[in-house]
Amino acid sequence: MNLKQIYLAFFSITLSIIALMYGVQPNWFAVMFLENASLTTNASHVLRAVSGLYLSLLTFFVYGIVNPKYTDTAIVITAIFCLGLAMGRTISILFDGLPSPILLVYVGMEYAIIPIAYFLLKKDKLHQKLKFENI
């Protein structure tokens, strides 16, 4: 397994845990991490829909692990996915105030993914450039 595949595997495992926490028992997630004793049916519905979205994206990330043709594309999508989540969370922090600590951890993780993905994509280009110059 190369570094890109390891990254996608780690990302997939982490995202699957988060997705399952949202989707399997939304009320448990709310009580444990969101300081909310009970969710409305609509809030549970939204958490389960987000869980399904995360799990569907995971299938492409796993495909990127096993099919090298799609590895870079999967990495780009992880960066775009995390950038969108982080920007939305940042807007919420600015307009709504600070959320639960777990959600602050999430936004930190999401912003951290972007330079890691960039590095992984640029690493190969730099390696190829150095290889070409040594010929």
Question: Which labels suit this protein?
Answer:
135 residues, single chain, 84% helix, mainly alpha, 5 helices
What this model shows, in words?
Helix 1 (3-23) runs antiparallel to helix 3 (41-66) and helix 4 (71-96) runs antiparallel to helix 5. This protein has 135 residues and is mostly helical. 84% of the residues lie in helices and 0% in strands. The longest helix has 33 residues, at 101-133. It has five helices and no strands. The protein has helices spanning 3-23, 26-33, 41-66, 71-96, 101-133.
Compact summary:
By secondary structure, the protein is an all-alpha fold. It has helices spanning 3-23, 26-33, 41-66, 71-96, 101-133. The chain is built from five helices and no strands.
The percentage helix is over 70%
Query: SSE string, helix = H, strand = E?
Result: HHHHH
- What is the average per-residue confidence, as pLDDT, rounded to a whole number? 89
Count of alpha/pi helices: 5
- Globally, the shape reads globular
> What is the β-strand count?
0
- Low-pLDDT runs of 5+ residues are none
> How much strand?
under 5%
Class from helix and strand fractions: mainly alpha
Q: Largest sheet, if any?
A: none
Distance between the termini: 27 Å
**Radius of gyration over all CA atoms, rounded:** 18 Å
Q: How are the elements arranged and paired?
A:
Layout: H1 3-23, H2 26-33, H3 41-66, H4 71-96, H5 101-133
Helix pairs in contact: 1-3, 1-4, 3-4, 4-5
